[in-house]
UniProtKB/TrEMBL annotation:
<feature type="transmembrane region" description="Helical">
    <location>
        <begin position="23"/>
        <end position="48"/>
    </location>
</feature>
<keyword id="KW-0472">Membrane</keyword>
<keyword id="KW-1133">Transmembrane helix</keyword>
<keyword id="KW-0812">Transmembrane</keyword>
<protein>
    <submittedName>
        <fullName>Uncharacterized protein</fullName>
    </submittedName>
</protein>
Length: 58
């Protein structure tokens, strides 16, 4: 299961019917969690940078 191509995995696996639906869901959840993690890290770094600038201005 490729973490970065869950949609292709889903289409492929639904045609081959080799894997259960839970494995496909697990794959998609892993993909979503990876995206959410990267977005969260970016937001935290932006907030931290802005916070330091506010402290410096005080």
């Amino acid at each position: 299961c490729s973490v970065y191509l869950p949609v292709l995995d889903y289409v492929y696996l639904s045609h081959t019917n080799q894997f259960s639906r839970s494995e496909i869901i697990l794959c998609i959840m892993t993909y979503v969690l990876t995206i959410a993690y990267f977005i969260g890290v970016n937001i935290l770094s932006l907030l931290w940078r802005r916070h330091r600038e506010l402290l410096r201005s005080l």
